[in-house]
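From the pipeline queue, job 12 of 40. The input is one protein chain; the requested action is below.

Action: predict structure.
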Amino acid sequence: MNITLPFRRKSVGERGGAIYRKKVRPFVYPQETGKIVVIDVRTGDYEMAANPRDEVPAERRLLARCPDAVIWRKRVGFQTVHAFGGLQVDKDG
């Protein structure tokens, strides 16, 4: 069974980062630092999650509006969304 993806993994990251920088960041940084933004890279539509526990409900809200969404995530003010056994650096990129 072959599955065709609409975007390559690298292009999802590039598109998501561009949408975040142009459309989302000006409205959420720095006042929403630490919250997670869930972005559909096809439409540019997004949802906010107050913390990682709310990330899945934010995804579901986005998917309810955009059923074919290709999702990319960003933690406002940080380089990574999640940290495992390490330190998150507070620097928006």
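Job complete. The helical segments are 9-28, 55-65.
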